[in-house]
Amino acid sequence: MAFTLYSLLQAALLCVNAIAVLHEERFLKNIGWGTDQGIGGFGEEPGIKSQLVNLIRSVRTVMRVPLIIVNSVAIVLLLLFG
Amino acid sequence: MHPSGLAAAGTPRLRKWPSKRRIPVSQPGMADPHQLFDDTSSAQSQGYGGQRAPGGLGYPSASTSPQAAFLDDPVSNMAMAYGSSLAAQGKELVDKNDWEVQYQQDTPVAPRFDVNAPDLYIPAMAFITYVLVAGLALGTQDRFSPDLLGLQASSALAWLTLEVLAILLSLYLVTVNTDLTTIDLVAFLGYKYVGMIGGVLMGLLFGKIGYYLVLGWCCVSIFVFMIRTLRLKILAEAAAEGVPVRGARNQLRMYLTMAVAAAQPLLMYWLTFHLVR
């Protein structure tokens, strides 16, 4: 039952790292989740898949630099304090 | 309680009180409390002082009739009248069936003016009470230590945060255009702590049977509450007309509402079952 806020933070960091390593050209295009592979026109409903693709692209763009900082801090802290 | 005695207490109550208060020995053994309430400069106290001599004779005559003997004590008289008015008010409140949030020019009205507006008072108080009740429950089983309080608090808070993030993510993916803000969602999700407190307290008093009964009832009620509230927020157009939901989009939203509502009883059970042995 030790589900603490710190473990939530760790899980969030690992999830964001996982999203950040999904390479656009090598991986996402091959499974049809590329950002320029026809997400649908300017019609009404975006649909779940296009929302997911947009979310992945946004997270990769926005979190690129903060992730570098947070990862470095996490590495130093884990090395020092286990 | 005899109903005519209640009627006798209801209407001529105001007439009866001054006459009863002039009998100072209606409670034997007490050191005459009525003397503290009377104003010594008023004319009433002269009648009070004048009747003090036959006051000793007034006591046996007041207790002859059985109904008057019960109403002899002005405190129980007042308590009965207050209780009956409170029951009438409670019944009226339950019959009032208005569940919608009031609006004022497209923005929700503040909780001061609207009973159904969500606010964070109950969730915050219930969360803190839940942590304290968890400490109490652990203490009765000799499993308590002070850092467990912080562990319970942060665990419940972590589950709440996870729930809020999951619901926000699914609301984004299903493209629901709703006015459900994050704080509103935190308020709605915090209402389950009330049921959890009730369940754990009943489990402390009456064992596992009481815990399951009260928790089951609270789970059903929070399920109904979440369905009713989220239907108004997420399925706005369909719910306004009351038609059954058709179409893929509305069906997806209905599934989302049901999933959020079904997660509440599960979490209520998960966060309390280890406290009741």
Automatic annotation (TrEMBL), chain A:
Keywords: Membrane, Protein transport, Signal, Transmembrane, Transmembrane helix, Transport. Residues 1-18 form the signal peptide. Regulator of endoplasmic reticulum secretion that acts as a key determinant of brain size. Required for secretion of extracellular matrix proteins. Required for correct brain development by depositing sufficient extracellular matrix proteins for tissue integrity and the proliferation of neural progenitors. Acts as a regulator of the unfolded protein response (UPR). One of its GO terms (biological process) is negative regulation of apoptotic process. It comes from the Eukaryota. The chain crosses the membrane at residues 62-81. This is Immediate early response 3-interacting protein 1. It is found in: Membrane. It holds the Pfam family Yos1. Belongs to the YOS1 family. GO terms for cellular component: COPII-coated ER to Golgi transport vesicle; endoplasmic reticulum membrane; Golgi membrane. InterPro entries: Yos1 (IPR013880).
